[in-house]
Structure formats: C-alpha cells, structure tokens
Design goal:
By secondary structure, the chain is mainly alpha-helical. Helix content is 64%, strand content 5%. α1 packs across α4, α13 packs antiparallel against α14 (299-312) and α18 (352-363) packs antiparallel against α19. Residues 477-578 form the HTH araC/xylS-type domain.
Length: 580
C-alpha cells in the first residue's frame, strides 16, 4: 500500500516467507507463491478465490512501512461463507523483521488451528537470519528481479545479489538465488545450458556449505545431479529429501521432470497433478502438463495447456515451440507453418521461428527451404544458441527420415554433455530411431535406468502368476527403499503402480498375495519403521510424537495411533518410554 518500489520488494518477501512457513505444517495444503501472487493488486471475491484456487480459507493483508515504523494488517477469510474469522494489526519496528515473520506465521497457524482443527505446530516456523535488515532488504530486491525469470531481470537480480554476498558472505540465500537464476536461464535457453550450469555450480556449493539441510539446497542439488551430472539416482535422493522438508509445487514438478526423462509418463503426470494442485496459476506447470500430453502423442489435448501457460506468462519461451509442433504432428503442417511464421519477440530470438518453420518444410517436402533452414540452424552451433540449434536439427532430420544423421547429431550432443539429450529420450518424433543400436547405446549411457528400451509388457486377464509376484515384490521393495515413496502423505495406489509400470489392479493383487497386506497396511509399515528410527534420534528430542509421525509420512493422528497399537501392541507413548 505504497507507491515505493522498495516497499513492494519487502512486502513480496514477507508474503513468501509466510507461505513457506505455513507450508512446513504437514496437515496444511498451502497454495504456492505464483498462484498466491496472481491475485496481487486485483479485486476478487472470496467465491472467485475458492473456485480458482480450490481453497477453503485464505489470508490477505497489507504492509505500510516507513524508516522507523511498520504496520502490517492480516485477516483470515472463509471462502465458503465469505466470513472473516479474524483480523489483526501489527505495529512493529522494521529492524525486527525476522521476529515479525515468525510471529505472524505462528499467529496465523494458531488461528487456523482454532478454526479448522488440530495442527502440529513447531515452536518456530521462520528461522532467524544473522544479517542486518538493510542487507536483507537488498536481498529481497535481488530475488524480486530473479523471480521475473527473463534474461534482463535475472541478470539485474544477480548483480544485486552479488553485492549482498560481498557485504554478508555467510548469508546462504543469495547464493541459492544466483544458482537458481543461472539454472533457470540455462533450462529456458536464455544462456547455453552448460555455460549456465558452470556459472551456477560455485554458488550452489557455497550455499550448501552454509546451509546443507534446507529444502532449496536439496532441490537445487537435484537439478544439478540430473541435468548436469546425469545421475538420476542421486537426483531423486535430493528431490525426495527436499519434499520431506517441505511440500512445494516446484519439488513435485522436479520429480515429474525426472520421471519424464526415464519415460515414466504416467508417474510424471501423477506428480505434476500435485504441483498443479498447489500452484494452479504457475505457467510452467500448465506448460509441463501440455508437454506430457505431447509426449503421449495426444497433440490436440496438449495445445490448450500450452495456450494457458502463455496466457499466464506470455514471455515463457517453451509453449510456442510445442504449439507449433503439435499442429505439425496432428496433420496440420500448413497451419503449423503459419503459426511459426507469426511468432515475434523472444520466440524469434531463441530460434523457435526458424526451427519450427524448417520442421514444417521437412513435413511438406519443400526440400529447398528445408535445406536453407538447416544451413542457417547449423550456423548457430558455435553460438550461445547451440542447445536449441542442435534440438531443431535433430528433429528436422528425424522428420526427413535421415536416421543416421539424427544419430550422428545425438552423439555430438551427448559428447558435448548438452542436457537436451535427456529429453530426446521420450520424444515421439524420434520413434523411428529409438530401436537403432547406436541410438539405444547413447541413451543407455546417458540414462542407464531407461524404460523406453524395455520390451512393452502385454497384460493378460489372469493378472500375475506366482513367479511374477516374486519378481515384482522384490522390485517394489527396492523402489520403496530407493525413492522413499512412503514419506509422501498423499501417496496413492495409482502412484505406486506408475513406478512399477503396472496397472493399479495388478499392484493391488501384488500387495495382497505377495505381502498379505492391502495398500494402506503396506505403506504404513514403512512409515512405522521410519517413525521408530526417527523418534529415537537426538535431533528429534524436542519434537512431539505426532510431529515425528507426520515427518514419517502419516497424515492422520487416528490412523497413526491405531496402526501403531495394532502392530506394536502398545501405544506410541509407552513405546517411547520403554526405548528412551
């Protein structure tokens, strides 16, 4: 509530901290930053928010600041009856910002507990940061620009955050945000991916040295392990550790990315659904939904999701590529050519127009224009646009049927460690070369656990025989150990089935005959064992029994207590006394 841009940085930062703090409460499903910020400075009714975000309750507020005083108003509104539960005004000194963030977060959590039911709330939700308020304000300013995600604002944000680091070298957050900025620019094609990841790495290393156990550190490590190191096992470990620390849409989206690389598209869709639930107004989530339909060759279904992504963020560079390709692959090459020809702005700069038109000429058998396009694309192989140039050259040659040339280009991309190699793996345009020995060898070197090269299973009516039950029982146990799926409180039978690449009714049979358990019993057994290990750790001595239970994947106090007594023959309290 001020025309001062400095106040906007501060207000955005305060809002984001409160969102992150409330997201730490296991029983709450908290809409993420992007979707919450979508309604900033807009006049909307409680009913509209309920319908658009699918939430029962929302928090709104305002901040007025001056050099010596800060007034923060907060109110809680029930979206069903448009009823104000409460409102509160906090008059505080700006120097106490970290205490204020924690105070307001705890206050909101307590009010939620009073009005919607029991919640396990930690003593502190926002950890204090040992930096002066003036430097923290500069940090919020840098993050404000980085979160705009385009090249100009990202570089501006990086410059601000570098100055923050110079003043406070032991402050972990600016290192993480610079790493994030470079990673985003590399992933979005605003910088060559390898160059961007190289620039990002030192900042991530320093952030982890300063704060190794934050969810953001773990998430950034997951990205590095996948896209730079091509180690999916480690990538999953870090992503699941991040999810264990905080339920957030970008973590679910990241796991969906990794599953996509492996070709596990149904599992990827399940995780993306959770990301969309937490952040329905994040453009990248809608884009990725369209991308998964594209990979499944459901082209007409995919296009509305890409258009929705552009509606939310017109500068997002990915959707135009796939809108055009979906038109092309659904038998509309002339419409696709017209679409690519109409693109302006960032899409021209990132080769989308050139590459897309060249793909259309290949499909239309216009050899002369196609060759001209290929020649121009080749001229970009020594520039900052090398990633996009390689991608389009591979796709154009695949459409032309030049399979040997496709594999030569894929091999070059592999030798140059270009991240695009991982997303060639599930590409429908490359179906003609997927079973070529050279292509398979490259893909299996990049992604050893590659389901695209396993023979597709044919399911029979009689479900699984005894040998198959033994085989899949071992496989399921290993998956549960490797991925720690049970830590996800929303895990479903469908999720479990997607990891095994089996229909859900097969997995239900597998659990009953292989383990003599139903789905809930099977998963809760892992959660119970996790709880028994965690409850005895010194670091958890200050936590309540239910806090540890929720950290172990349980999502209900009643379910936890009932299951514990059934399996252990005693209550959790008695167990703890006997084993402390």
């Amino acid at each position: 509530m001020s025309n001062n841009i400095e106040n906007e940085y501060f207000c955005d930062g305060l809002t984001e901290e409160i969102i992150n703090a409330l997201a730490k409460i296991k029983q709450l499903s908290v809409t993420s930053r992007t979707s919450s910020f979508y309604f900033k400075n807009k006049t909307v009714t409680a009913q509209e928010i309920r319908e658009k975000l699918n939430v029962a309750t929302f928090i709104e507020g305002s901040v007025r600041t001056s050099k010596k005083k800060m007034r923060i108003t907060v109110q809680m509104i029930d979206t069903v009856d448009d009823f104000h539960f409460w409102s509160e005004t906090f008059d505080r000194i700006p120097e106490n910002i970290f205490e204020i963030q924690d105070e307001i977060s705890l206050f909101i959590a307590e009010k939620l507990r009073e009005h919607i039911g029991h919640l396990e709330i930690e003593d502190k939700l926002v950890a204090p940061i040992d930096v002066p308020v003036a430097i923290y304000r500069e940090y919020l300013k840098g993050r404000y620009y980085i979160m705009k995600l385009d090249y100009k604002n990202s570089t501006k944000g990086i410059d601000i955050l570098k100055k923050v680091i110079h003043k406070s070298p032991n402050f972990a957050s600016p290192y993480l945000d610079i790493n994030l900025a470079y990673m985003n620019m590399g992933t979005m094609g605003l910088l060559p991916a390898f160059e961007a990841y190289q620039k990002a790495q030192p900042y991530l290393s320093k952030a982890i040295e300063l704060d190794p156990n934050s969810s953001r550190s773990q998430l950034n490590l997951a990205w590095i392990e996948c896209w730079q190191n091509w180690d999916l096992k480690k990538a999953y470990e870090h992503a699941h550790k991040a999810l264990e620390l905080q339920q957030a849409d970008d973590i679910y989206l990241t796991i969906s990315n990794f599953l996509t690389v492996e070709g596990k598209l149904d599992a990827a869709s399940n995780y993306l659904d959770k990301a969309l639930q937490l952040d329905p107004y994040a453009a990248i989530n809608h884009h990725y939904n369209g991308f998964l339909y594209y990979l499944k060759e459901e082209y007409t279904t995919a296009i509305p999701f890409f258009k929705k992504a552009l509606e939310l963020d017109p500068k997002l560079p990915f959707p135009p590529i796939y809108i055009g390709i979906c038109l092309l692959m659904s038998g509309k090459p002339n419409e696709a050519l017209k679409y690519f020809g109409s693109l302006e702005g960032i899409s021209v700069k990132d080769l989308t127009k050139l590459g897309g038109e060249t793909m259309c000429y290949a499909k239309l058998n216009d050899t002369e224009k196609c060759n001209q396009g290929l020649k121009e694309l080749e001229s970009y192989l020594t520039t900052a646009l090398v990633d996009k140039a390689f991608t389009f050259m591979i796709l154009v040659n695949a459409l032309l049927g030049n399979n040997e040339k496709v594999i030569d280009l894929v091999e070059q991309a592999y030798n140059n460690r270009l991240p695009l190699v991982l997303l060639l793996n599930p590409s429908p345009i490359l179906k003609p070369v997927k079973h070529h020995k050279r292509f398979k060898d490259i893909m299996l070197k990049a992604i050893p656990d590659n389901v695209n090269y396993e023979q597709k299973k044919k399911y029979k009516q009689a479900l699984l025989d005894s040998d198959e039950i033994k085989k899949y029982s071992k496989e399921l146990e290993q998956i549960m150990i490797d991925y720690k799926l049970y830590l996800n409180p929303d895990l479903s039978l469908k999720d479990l089935a997607s990891y095994l690449e089996l229909p859900a009714n097969y997995v239900s049979q597998l659990l009953n005959q292989g383990f003599d358990k139903n789905f809930s019993e099977y998963v809760n057994t892992f959660r119970l064992n996790e709880f028994k290990q965690r409850i005895l750790l010194e670091e958890n001595k200050s936590l309540t029994i239910m806090a540890v239970a929720y950290d172990s994947g349980f999502n209900s106090k009643t379910v936890f207590n009932t299951f514990f007594k059934k399996m252990e023959g005693t209550t959790p309290n008695s167990y703890l006394k006997n084993n402390s």
